[in-house]
Amino acid sequence: MKIPTCKVLLLLTVILTACDVSQLNNPYTGDEGKRSILYQSFSERPKHFDPAVAYSENEYAFIAQIYEPPFQYHYLKRPYQLTPLAATKMPEIIYLNKQGEKLGEEAKDSDIVYTDYVIDIQPGIQYQPHPALAKNSQGEYLYHHLTQAQIRPLKTLNDLKSTGSRELTAEDYVHQIKRLAHPKMQSPIAEVMKNYIVGFEEFSKQVADKQKHEIKNIPMSGVEAINRYQYRIRIKGKYPQFIYWLAMTFFSPMPWEADVFYDQAGMSDKNITLDWFPIGTGPYLLAENNPNRRMILLKNPLFHLERYPSEGEPEDKQNGLLTDAGKQLPFIDKVVFMLEKETIPYWTKFLQGYYDASGIASDSFDQAIQFTGSGGVALTDSMKKRGIQLQTQVETSIFYMGFNMLDPTVGGNSERGRKLRQAIAIAVDYEEYISIFRNGRGVAAQGVIPPGIYGYAEGKDGINPYSYDWINDKARRKKIEAARQLMAEAGYPYGIDPKTKEALILYFDTTSVSIDDRPTMNWYRKQFEKLGIKLVIRATDYNRFQEKMRAGNEQIFVWGWNVDYPDPENLFFLLYGANSKVKHGGENAVNYENPEFDRLFEQMRNMDDGEQRYQIIQQLQEIARHDAPWIFGFNPKNFSLFHSWYSNLKPNLMANNRLKYTRIDTSARTEKRLAWNYPIFWPLALAALLFVLMLIPAIRAYRRRARETLQ
Amino acid sequence: MIHYIIRRFLYAFPLLMGVNILTFVLFFIVNSPDDMARMQLGQKHVTEQAVSNWKQQHGYDEPLLWNANAQGKEKITRTIFYQKSVGLFLFRFGVSDSGRNIGADIQERMWPSLALALPTLCVGLLVDISFALMMVLFRGSYLEHAGIVLCVILMSISSLFYIIGGQFFIAKLLRLVPISGYDDGLAAIKFLILPVLIGVFSGVGSGARWYRTLFLEEVEKDYVRTARAKGLTETQTLFRHVLRNALIPILTGVVVILPLLFMGSLIMESFFSIPGLGSYTIDAINSQDFAIVRAMVFLGSVLYVIGLLLTDISYTLVDPRVRLS
């Protein structure tokens, strides 16, 4: 059958006109419609979505939007403060003596043997629709007794079509705490919690041979549901920081039905586990879980009423952060997280408007940021032209250089060792390090506590007087002569070791083994050379490095800590003697032990914030600065970029559930994307023309050759 | 032929066992079960008890190769090597150290790998052979010299440059395709255009030169002279006779890599965010997930053995003089 040429032409015209060439580079398919969709990326596949196990930032990015612990950090108020989330109010805290009798609030720490946290949760909160809660008309669970034949064809949780929901109860919070204790869960905080929650360790032993779904009816002595909406956690002694743990997803509710459902034989073979398909009460539910490519969060249709905060800091109103005050959360309908491992495509997509927010990788830093005359930072003109917003925030983390206090040369409590450490602390110029290796993204740390944590002192009072002087209202690093003087006092004049009569040799243990790390290692060498010290770099892989740390075979190293909660206890415990790594396997990597420091720490950790606690914190800082087991390195500064259509932006390093506050102006985004992404075709036409021109001599040559062959 | 195939499969068993032992030994020289546990448990609050629990839960609490405390055959069977290896020969890859079923992951991720590798191979073959034939057609002329110079230039440039350059020019400057990503079904096409194009382009230099050598060897043979003597044009000689005879080494060279297409491309998949098996393996190595590394090495070995077998069989199909015995 012959098809008329005009029909073919007509068809081609229809196809070509139907093709929208305005955004050929759009990585998303499907029509967004009127829905508000936020596009983000993730670079590393999250390992766990089970709130009993998840403990890393890339996991929190998802599960903090899905699960709801009883408390959360206030989005706008600073310093960071807790506020009820699923709870109706802050917990009632009751101190008890050994006999279990109630004590007054002014009770001495030594009298307090137990502390009860009584938590009331809001009635009427519903779980997200989930197959584990689906019931038939007789009220029986639909999917709790699946046969192998039913499980075999399943590929994802969404293949189970029926879903159900039920009301959140206090028992669900109790069940989750039991799950934390279950040895099969491998919860990273189980070892910490067994020191605090009454009955935690005993429960752990009791259920060791039981399946997860079998623990529902086995009681844990320190945790109980008082009624449908109230539960109590009893902890040992007084531990005021426990309240912060209650704002972490570890203490989110978990319906027992989830364990029964996911524990069915054959489900894990299909990768259908609680670790991959969460069930929560939060503003979002995980609609697509493909950690190899894309994760999608959708607004939970059963999310309870939660409103945008109506109070914050004084400047919040001026910054437009209270425009949405009192409005129902969340504002975004759908959040798409795309896997993006390489920085170049990630950055390009951000500039094309396909990601709404971005960090700044080192190779695109100069493109995005410029330094102002006064030493501040600002966006480059090209970024400003696109309306991009910059947000900076000093992180509540610290990177420090540690001295192994068990080492005979750099460690110990002797005056010699202390002066040597103090001298090195002056010589290692972290301001220079931040400028060279971090594009200015950091501030040189003056003590153990980073800015934003209670006890941090600003200005002259907050400097480290052993390494800095206060000159012209600024902390200035002491001159290198001061360090050399300390070296001489320590018995190493000009860096000469009296034993060998040669330059003192120190060893720096690191995991920086790649060629890219060489400039950093050379920089460290040069810092030590200022004092005449020869620094030997011992680079090794992370496993061997950890082995050395556990055995105390290292001398000098660089380590970091990101706080779990905004309390100085979570930082000073890194220098607490009972936490030393070699003796006790704890987090005190430098194995520092100072009885006075330990005494003050024990006093401080149980105190409520106030003048007395503040003064003790300053004393602890002073001891740490004087003894110098750490060189206080730097506190990293986070730089984030957001497009102009992104609003309600306020850095909050403690709250991980920030998505619900985010608002996107989708029409502005569509407009900008269209303007930024129209394809350019003329180079293709030019290339085609060039190709044709190149063919001409080839065709001529071919014809000539063909004629020659024939002749 | 059937006997030959069976015999080759039987030979494969000790070979695969050897590969398995080698992978096992190499992996555990670098990482102890304690290291693996610490890697999976993260960096905070990791106690010896937690490490011990993890090892017990994941079956890494037994000795590596020989259990001196066990009795009888349990000296071998109650070891990490035995426990983790037996399932492989039944293609039961088990669960990764992070808790996911490896078999399900492989099934899911091999398709994107294939979707990238197969078009790259086919289009690449077509382009390489065409280019090589052109060079042979114009042999001795400035066009051939220009072609060789171009091939050497293309070969000398790192594939990473093609990737970054391609992404910059085509995706960023011209905005013709998405710079990275993947989608299901036909929607994947727009994401595959650029990596396939780059894959083809980066292979043209070496491919065309290799095929040119094969064709040049053929054009000097007697049958070609006879064809010319019969009065066939150069084009007819090349396409009807030379190409057909040169297909034997081309075909056998392609068949051997066919099964390995499933294994994916490490760099391409990473740069273009294609969720294939190449990036799966790299991620597993980075996170010290021995279960995945072992499964992927085993699968690679099996596929390579199959590839070699298919090559032998393809010889018999394209060259009737070859007999397998």
Structure classification of chain A? alpha+beta
Counted up, domains of chain B total 2
Report how far the terminal alpha carbons of chain B are from each other.
Answer: 6 Å
Bulk shape of chain A: globular
Helix percentage range of chain A:
25-40%
Number of strands of chain A: 27
- The percent of residues in helical segments of chain B reads over 70%
Question: For the report, how would you describe the main beta sheet of chain B?
Answer: none
Strand content of chain B: under 5%
For the largest interface, the chains and their residue counts are: A-B, 60 and 65 residues
Low-pLDDT residue spans of chain B? none
Strands of chain B, total number? 0
- As a percent range, the share of strand residues of chain A is 15-25%
Supply the CATH class of the largest domain in chain B: Mainly Alpha
CATH topology of the domain at 398-638 in chain A: Dipeptide-binding Protein, domain 3
CATH homolog superfamily of the domain at 398-638 in chain A? Dipeptide-binding Protein, Domain 3
Low-confidence stretches of chain A: none
- The average pLDDT value of chain A, as a whole number, equals 91
Detailed description of the structure:
The complex is a heterodimer of chains A (711) and B (325). With 711 residues, chain A is of the alpha+beta class. Chain A is built from 23 helices and 27 strands. In chain A, the strands form eight sheets. In chain A, strands 12, 15, 16, 17, 22, 23, 24 and 25 form an eight-stranded mixed sheet that branches. Chain A has a five-stranded antiparallel sheet with strand order 5-4-6-8-7, covered by helices on one side. Chain A has a four-stranded mixed sheet with strand order 1-11-10-9, with helices on one face. In chain A, helix 13 runs antiparallel to helix 15 (480-489) and helix 20 packs antiparallel against helix 21. The model of chain A has no long low-confidence stretch (mean pLDDT 91). By secondary structure, chain B is mostly helical. In chain B, helix 6 (102-137) packs across helix 9 and helix 11 (234-257) runs antiparallel to helix 14 (290-318). The longest helix of chain B has 36 residues, at 102-137. The interface between A and B is large, with 60 and 65 residues.
